[in-house]
């Protein structure tokens, strides 16, 4: 039998919170427990980097993976222009620790201008992308 067994009367397990509800700092995993035998482990455990993503980021990542890396599919799924989809995916990679900081990523100026000319993005969006 695969999947998680509901505990304490809950029908679905809760997503692990990633930030403190009091000070908003990143939470650390310090305790693990076995629901079968009651064994508990205490210490400082590394948290899964994918577990820190919000549901929107996870959905974007799933679309990207399901489309075998096709950013045009991500573009259609998000309902945004290709440069915006690329920027959002770059930001997702950055949150995962896999991308360059936002200020260092090159933007294809010609593609952005072509998207403005075709009406795919607004001049304001182009200005933000090129800033």
TrEMBL record:
Entry protein name: DUF2089 family protein
Region of interest called Disordered, as start-end residue ranges on this chain: 1-20
Source organism phylogeny: Bacteria, Bacillati, Actinomycetota, Actinomycetes, Propionibacteriales
Pfam families assigned to the protein according to its UniProt record, in alphabetical order: DUF2089, Zn_ribbon_DUF2089
Organism listed in the record: Auraticoccus cholistanensis
DUF2089 domain residues: 20-51, 53-98
Coiled coil: none
Signal peptide: none
């Amino acid at each position: 039998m695969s999947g998680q067994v509901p505990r304490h009367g809950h029908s679905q397990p809760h997503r692990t919170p990633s930030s403190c509800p009091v000070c908003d700092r990143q939470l650390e995993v310090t305790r693990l427990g076995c629901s079968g035998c009651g064994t508990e482990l205490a210490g400082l455990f590394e948290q899964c980097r994918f577990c820190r993503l919000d549901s929107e980021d996870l959905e974007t990542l799933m679309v990207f993976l399901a489309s075998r890396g096709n950013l045009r599919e991500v573009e259609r799924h998000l309902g945004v222009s290709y440069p915006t989809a690329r920027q959002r995916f770059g930001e997702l990679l950055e949150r995962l620790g896999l991308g360059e900081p936002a200020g260092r990523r090159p933007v294809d100026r010609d593609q952005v201008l072509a998207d403005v000319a075709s009406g795919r993005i607004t001049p304001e969006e182009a200005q933000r992308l090129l800033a």
